[in-house]
Amino acid sequence: MHRTPALIPPRRLSTTVARRLAVALAALLTGLAVLGLAGCGGPGADSPEALFAQVQGHTQRKEWRLFWSLYTPEERKRQTDGWESFKQFLRENPGEDNRTLCERTFGVRPEEFHTLAPLEIFELTMRGEETAMDGARIENVEPAPDVPGGVRVWWLDRHGERHSMLTVQVDGRWRLVSMVE
Fold this sequence. Notes:
By secondary structure, this protein is an alpha+beta fold. The protein is built from seven helices and four strands; from the N terminus they run αααααααββββ. Strands 1-2-3-4 form a four-stranded antiparallel β-sheet, with helices on one face.
């Protein structure tokens, strides 16, 4: 009986199939992540309450890139401009006191701080905040008369302390303006 040799040995075939499945799964997960980030309508949420839930979840899971994407473009620019001003200040005032200030504030030396992108700086500012919204709950949602179209979400942390976040609609999605008041 004459047997035709297999073109691909069975072991090789299973490795090849496994690789193809892994690539297909990675592509699928990447696509789902993009859709999740985009929310099928861009970053943000359908309501201020849903935005609060997203902020809370991203904080608890240390998903700083996704948290950062919830800010309005104007707020991200404002924060970035502030960090760039601080970089310039450090260049012009390289003394030991300012070196210590940079290290205490961001946990890095000024030489490293100068090389960081805005998202990286944001991640540094969020260190240690992973549990800040554990057990937090919305207390009240009301218009913010000082911001056209703005809505303020008042929330209580797990200790009962009151905080607020300011939200606005951008392209039909609720986005974050501020968490610090």
